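Run folding on both entries below.
>entry_1
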Amino acid sequence: MEKTLPPIPVKRYFTIGEVGELCGVKPHVLRYWEQEFTQLRPMKRRGNRRYYQHHEVLMIRRIRDLLYDQGFTISGARNKLQELVQGERDRRKAGEVPLEGMEAIEIDQEEFDAAVVQDTPTSAAAAAKTVDLSQLLHLRRELFEIRELLTVGHPI
């Protein structure tokens, strides 16, 4: 059930309908997952309307992947998610900052450094051509997600 999900816009809060579209699940499924996964706690405002933050959208995508793509049961996904959260906490305590996708970017560092030092558009453009545009877009998205997590005060 490999389905490409749309990019997550950079904004503070998302409605349950928006999250459903961003994650490829229906709102009633999201409400059910809130009961099953204690880490998933959207803010509720008047009329019991749910507002999800960026890190919760990422978590829902992770839950969706575990359940739909990797075939975990609810309890198995709950345990795996707890392991992932604990692993991230341990890496942060150790001072590591995970940046997914960095290993895929291959740049000739000497050529790029020379282009930056010369500060000429043609040499900088030549150095930039060594990086695939899709890799840069992936890295940009990851950096926006990290920035959002840092500004929101992500609890993980």
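>entry_2
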Amino acid sequence: MVSTNDVEHLKLVALDQDDLAIISAHLQDAVVRPRDLAYLPEDRRFALVARRFDWTCGEAEPRRRLAGLHFERVTRCRSKGVDRDRADAPLSLLAVTFEVRDAPSGVATLCFSGGASIELELECIEVQMKDLGPVWATAKRPSHALENT
């Protein structure tokens, strides 16, 4: 079932590491395809479209939402394990992290399952995430095995 009005759409802005951690939590287990990734060096922007799991659904019927994410003030983009030749191969986003290098600049890393990653060198954190509309039921709720330490 696809709906655009059942729940308020998220629109989040990150200007520091704490804000980015909130966006990362909402994007945990989002499905991204290489064709939905774009680095625009002339605009100093990196953008993607994701099918994020809606963690706010609680115990209700699991659902996904289409969401956009973009980083501003990007000075460099590198990827590892992202096969652009397999444009429809799904990647599961695990987290978005930030490492300060020369404050306020640093490196944001999009960490995917299987060891794939995208590193974005940023002048500063300026990130936006916004739900784009469609919401649909999904058969599975993401889960992760906990490792014994």
